[in-house]
Amino acid sequence: MASHDNEYPVAPPAPLKGRGAVTNMQGRYEKDERERVDDGWTYIGEDGETNDAPSLRTQVFEERAKSILTRNSSPDIPFGVSLNPYRGCEHGCIYCFARPTHSYLGLSPGLDFESQIYAKINAGELLERELDKPSYQPEPIALGVITDAYQPVERNLRITRRVIEILSERGHPFAAITKSSLIERDIDLLAPMAQKGQVMAAITITTLDADIARTLEPRAATPSRRLRTIRALTEAGIPVGVSVAPVIPFVTEPDMERVLEACAEAGATSASYIVLRLPWEVAPLFKDWLAAHFPDRAERVMGRVRDMRGGKDYDSDFSKRMKGEGLWADMLKQRFHNATKRLGLNQRQRGILDMSEFRHVEKVVGRHPRAAVDSAQMKLF
């Protein structure tokens, strides 16, 4: 097993208020090297945050994307098509597996990922063009998988809402996953689609501890607000699941049963979980976060992560990356199974979305040839 000595800094980087990453580490494709320099002026307050550091403002850049639907063939991912209206995510979740995608832009997966957001302003136009092709074969679309489709900039840009309007007009099924209460804004579109079996939603809740959530996912809705969102969607007739993801040993893991109980009480009918994933630059970013916020348990956390990852920080094997392996992974799986069974979660047939109403707007032809055969299963949640 590789040595992990000195992987945590003696003087960890100071957190920035309202941000998840504590550094702006160099992306793996950047040509210029970055070096942190202490000029002696940094003051760390009693709350552990940098009080006199300049605030990091979010910048939003307009992007005219070339395509909008991403197709996936990974055997451990239960959907084949996804749509992401944005690149980067202001929620700032330190564990986000999508952080390394900012490296392709020549930016850092750290603070750049959560402060330099690219908005695909032509998403609606591209989606219309794709869906109205005579050759288009419908299958459920997963909305907001790589970055949250309801992150703060959506409140004004309304790109996600336009996407949903188009899907609604064409009777095209989709599933949305989010940490934001902003999804409630679109209940007027979601509820009628839910009545036809064309939509489902999942709310991600990692912990009920607001203090942990504030550092873990600083600009997402609070845990209590997300529970209210589950209730609001459920009362509107929209099927809702909860994604307990990621499960972080000794940080969010002790809270798993409580999260499931609260979500079931709020109206969720299904649940899933994913063990912490640390691909590429996410690993060092997460370790810096641990050193800054949980120095007392950083070694224990990473030790348990490696116990479930074959001694490594991360294992990309399709059969292991979502749930891990070994004794601790098996115990976690059993805990989840026992809790969901006790709470009546995952008892109904789930993930069924009806494609039979799909139509092209130019010519309404009734049932699509493929959709007429059967409804589609989408066990995203």
TrEMBL record:
Any keyword Ribosomal protein? Answer: no
Query: Keywords for this entry?
Result: Iron, Iron-sulfur, Metal-binding
Repeat in keyword set = no
Pfam families per UniProt:
Radical_SAM
**UniProt-recorded Gene Ontology molecular function terms:** catalytic activity; iron-sulfur cluster binding; metal ion binding
Superkingdom of the source? Answer: Bacteria
Where are stretches of biased composition, namely Basic and acidic residues? 28-39
Against InterPro entries, the record matches this protein to: Elp3/MiaA/NifB-like_rSAM, MJ0683-like, rSAM, rSAM_sf
Question: Which PROSITE patterns does the annotation name?
Answer: RADICAL_SAM
The residue ranges of the Radical SAM core domain are: 75-312
**According to the UniProt record, where is the region Disordered?**
1-53
PANTHER family annotated for this entry? SLR0285 PROTEIN
Q: What is this protein called?
A: Radical SAM domain protein
